[in-house]
Amino acid sequence: MLAVVTGASRGIGRLLVERLIKKGYQVVGIARSREALEELKARFGGSFEYVVLDLAQNGAERDVKKALEELGVDKVDLLINNAGFGIKKPLLEHGEEELQKLFRVLTISPVLMTKELLPLMQSGSKVVMVLSGVAFVRTPEMSAYGAAKAALHYLSLTLSEELREKGIKVIRIYPKQVATPFWDKTPKGAISPEQVADAIIKAIENGREEVFVPGYIKVAKYLPRWPALTYRFEF
Questions:
Q1: Residue 50 designated active-site
Q2: Is pTM beyond 0.85 here?
Q3: Helix (H, G, I), strand (E, B), or coil: what is residue 78?
Q4: Considering 25, 145, 174, 231, which one is annotated as catalytic?
Q5: Span 152-185, pLDDT tens digits
Q6: Which runs of consecutive H residues, i.e. helices, occur in 48-123?
Q7: Continuous segment of H or E residues that includes residue 2
């Protein structure tokens, strides 16, 4: 079994690499930090390979596919689109380049990565989209991030339908704020990255297509308006 994990160098992605290898997967990690990826390679040896790449760059997904072919990979059983970052400031303070990079990494790249690697996937393969509970609420401090995740939520529903006929399952994960290096200062109420990684592994194993972490945040999905409410992070 072979898994491709984006954002593999730290946080949730790094934990997923560790858990998947322990479960017998061969893992290829995608991230910008060569040093962090080489640390994982030194730790796990032949069970881990990596590609140093910035998913904010146009054509990055084609480069990933080419790199996989050079590594001799001819089949992908699991793709986890996990890479991401956020910008905490008012929307009107965002520059054009910032918005383009944000939507490129959070929304466009997961779709294109799935498309590029699809020829390597067979019936029974799985695609995991690491989304966010902010897809259902308004977050004034991180409105562009929330919009990008909401857009990926919409596109993931469509991908799920399009890939179903090929026997490929799309798994959508919606965590609340997570205590990772994503934040300069961790917000109150943040959950541990281990909790999210464990929920993702469990969803892969039991085939659930939609998982909220923790489960109670699912209520936002069923409130009568979208965005359901305004959520302000406390630090």
A1: no
A2: yes
A3: strand
A4: 145
A5: 999 999 999 999 999 999 999 999 989 877 777 7
A6: 60-70, 96-103, 109-117
A7: strand 2-6
